[in-house]
Design goal:
single chain, 100 residues, alpha+beta, three-stranded antiparallel beta sheet, 20% strand, globular
């Protein structure tokens, strides 16, 4: 069985780019603990917040983002986060609907 690693690319508003940031179990557990405290719900219900927070946690763990800054500040400084999940995403503004 091949293991699939969760990787994200992060683009900051200042133009800095971070590629292939690996999300590990510790980042996922940090999300889980925070989600429970903030009453965010499970990852499956809000993949956007989950991916963003895990990217934030990974960047702090790796020393790429200040430990003094919180997730809310991170959200104001990020231009985009790209993840493996984005590959199959459908743009809801262009999705076709069936005629009944």
């Amino acid at each position: 069985m091949a293991m699939q690693k969760m990787l994200v690319d992060i683009e900051m508003l200042d133009g800095t780019e971070f590629e292939d940031i690996r999300i590990i179990w510790a980042d996922m557990m940090r999300y889980s603990d925070t989600a429970r405290r903030r009453k965010w719900g499970p990852m499956e219900e809000d993949k956007l917040t989950a991916t963003g927070f895990m990217a934030f946690a990974a960047m702090q763990r790796l020393g790429l983002y200040s430990a003094d800054k919180g997730f809310d500040t991170f959200n104001t400084e990020v231009a985009m986060i790209y993840s493996d999940d984005d590959a199959g995403a459908v743009d809801p503004t262009t999705a076709e609907t069936s005629a009944d």
